[in-house]
Write a structure and sequence with these properties.
Largest sheet: none
Function: Key component of the proton channel; it plays a direct role in the translocation of protons across the membrane.
GO molecular function, one term: proton-transporting ATP synthase activity, rotational mechanism
Order of helices and strands: HHHHHHHH
Structural class: mainly alpha
Shape: globular
Number of strands: 0
Protein name: ATP synthase subunit a
Distance between the termini: 60 Å
Number of domains: 1
Number of helices: 8
Oligomer: single chain
Helix content: 55-70%
Keywords: ATP synthesis, Cell membrane, CF(0), Hydrogen ion transport, Ion transport, Membrane, Transmembrane, Transmembrane helix, Transport
Strand content: under 5%
Membrane topology: Multi-pass membrane protein
Radius of gyration: 24 Å
Length: 295
């Protein structure tokens, strides 16, 4: 039997950086394991959420009726943008009083979580290693790299999309009543009367289940896929510096290439960070707006 192939240093580097600091002490082996808690994702997502709440509180506290400062003007621009989008999608004014602030919070929260990807790949691990909080295998047991990007952890985007799904159910039941919501599951999108309605009801239910599942999965997977790809590309760019072990012309060229490639990708990645946050916010508004409407 052939001996197992050795893992290359490049593959080991990437695998090491993709491991979470969790409650098991080793990388998660299966895609779905409800017993695993990624402490790093929980910490950084909650930290960015608190930062968003603090910034909005600070903006509200410093708001003046006169000429606004730069901070207030920036916050007002974002608030007006989100409010305009909410008005055009969610036509129920009572619901919009909650949904518009929710969309604003989601946009800023996802933006800040995504922005963590701009921190140099090896910096968080180095800092936590200096503090003795993380590291590689050693004689005292396994400790793993601290992964800083929450939206590249599938649990975070999917958790947020599940929250949007639950809110869709809530507004669907609130607007249409429980009986009307359940009735619509069996009578739409194929409308009929009499025996035909009974015959089509299982297909309507199946299509509605597929629709809700597709919305939820696509909402979370879109954010996860884009941020995971961006994180992986930063790691590949960081590998360019792995060959920089001296001061030869080739190594200097690799180092300069790493800095240039990383800077160019970071500048482009800023657009992805904002775009993915905007898309997640808009789809949240669309799905909650659809919950107020009938087929």
């Amino acid at each position: 039997m052939a001996a197992p192939a050795e893992v290359s240093p490049q593959s080991a580097y990437v695998q090491h950086h993709l491991a979470h600091l969790n409650n098991t002490g080793h990388p998660q082996s299966s895609i779905l394991d409800m017993s695993v808690i990624n402490y790093d994702s929980v910490f950084w997502s909650l930290a960015m959420g608190l930062v968003v709440v603090f910034l909005l509180w600070l903006a509200a506290r410093r708001a003046t009726a006169g000429v606004p400062g730069r901070f207030q003007a920036g916050v007002e621009m974002v608030v007006d943008m989100v409010n305009d989008q909410a008005k055009s999608i969610v036509h129920n004014e009572v619901s919009r009083k909650f949904i518009a602030p929710l969309a604003l919070t989601v946009f800023l929260w996802v933006t800040l979580m995504n922005a963590l990807d701009l921190i140099p790949v090896d910096l968080p691990g180095a800092i936590f290693g200096w503090l003795g909080l993380t590291g590689d295998h050693h004689e005292h047991g396994p400790l793993y790299y601290h992964r800083i990007l929450p939206t590249a952890d599938l649990n975070v985007p999917m958790g947020m999309s599940l929250a949007v799904l639950l809110l869709s159910f809530y507004y669907g039941i609130k607007i249409k009543s429980a009986g009307g919501f359940v009735k619509e599951l069996f009578t739409a999108p194929f409308h009929a009367h009499g025996f035909a309605a009974v015959l089509l009801s299982p297909f309507n239910l199946l299509l509605n289940i597929i629709e809700y599942a597709a919305k939820t999965v696509s909402l979370g997977m879109r954010l996860f896929g884009n941020m995971f790809a961006g994180e992986l590309l930063f790691m590949l760019i960081a590998l360019l510096g792995g060959a920089w072990t001296g001061f030869s012309a080739m190594n200097i060229g690799l180092g300069i290439g790493q800095v240039l490639a990383g800077s160019i990708w970071a500048i482009f990645h800023i657009l992805i960070i904002l775009l993915q946050a905007f898309i997640f916010m808009m789809l949240t508004l669309v799905y909650l707006g659809q919950a107020h409407e009938g087929h």
